[in-house]
């Protein structure tokens, strides 16, 4: 059950309108790594979680918090659009700088949204539910959540350097602080899964009947680049992070199967097939003769 508090988690009020920055801010609202994505991702992971208790609470708590971030950013975008010029003539009446800001605005903010935020990214592409992942495997999901928070922090930090508005910057500081907590939190949750003996890798590192393939391929780094720079990496020698094997380095990977030769295609599918084409020519020639 959800309830809505009228108060925001943190102030979302710019010092002045800026329609062009409102367009940029849409990225951390409705972009691939925006707040709409992480809010829905964490909630669906929580709803799909089959472990009652701390893990389910963790997912639903953070998903609910992220919904609050959606509201904050939508509010900020709407306020940035207040009193924005609606035509180039209106913009030019003020000064060239305002005209430039008008040129960088998103017309859909006014045509579709009536001067409000939209569920789109900074290019105006609608938010897509395919952005979210809720696999049912907590280790796999938590690792993706670390990535989502890292990308979110990166985008917030970039936006911070694209505005001089003190009010906007203060909200971005808050979002960066919370995303920092969330990224560390998901990394801690990964370690907690290991301590609880629930997960080590997102899926089995090998099937029971694949000992030979495991020995040959599970811990071998295949270098397909010139030189041997990759051999200096932590991934080319020493113990693997899962504690089950030793990394090996192979500078000259070899093929393990011959070149594939496919059988003739189904003629009913009209694919390009030299064998069938030649056969049809021979058939035609035989009929003519």
Report on this model:
By secondary structure, the protein is mostly helical. The chain folds into two domains: 19-195, Ferritin, CATH 1.20.1260; 211-250, no CATH class. Helices cover 50% and strands 3% of the residues. The chain contains eleven helices and three strands. It has helices at residues 19-25, 27-30, 35-48, 54-80, 88-92, 96-103, 107-111, 138-160, 166-195, 211-217, 274-288, and strands at 220-222, 238-239, 246-250. Strands 1-3-2 form a three-stranded mixed beta sheet, with no helix packed on it. Helix 4 (54-80) packs antiparallel against helix 9. It is extended and about 75 Å long. The model has no long low-confidence stretch (mean pLDDT 89). It comes from Micromonospora qiuiae. InterPro entries: Ferritin-like, Ferritin-like_SF, Mn_catalase, Mn_catalase_dom.
Quick recap:
It comes from Micromonospora qiuiae. Helices cover 50% and strands 3% of the residues.
Quick one: biggest sheet?
Answer: 3 strands, mixed
- Weakly predicted, low-confidence segments: none
CATH architecture of the largest domain: Up-down Bundle
Q: Write the element-wise H/E pattern from the N-terminal end onward.
A: HHHHHHHHHHEEEH
Indicate the mean pLDDT: 89
Q: From the helix content, strand content and strand pairing, which structural class follows?
A: mainly alpha
CATH names the topology of the largest domain as: Ferritin
How many structural domains? 2
Q: If helices are DSSP runs of H or I spanning 4 or more residues, what is the number of helices?
A: 11
Q: What does the overall shape look like? A: extended
| Distance between the amino and carboxyl termini | 82 Å
Task: Find the CATH superfamily of the largest domain.
Answer: Ferritin, core subunit, four-helix bundle
Rg over alpha carbons = 28 Å
Strands, total number: 3
Q: What is the CATH top level name of the largest domain? A: Mainly Alpha
Secondary structure: helix percent? 40-55%
Sequence of strands across the biggest β-sheet: 1-3-2
Give the amount of beta strand, in percent: under 5%
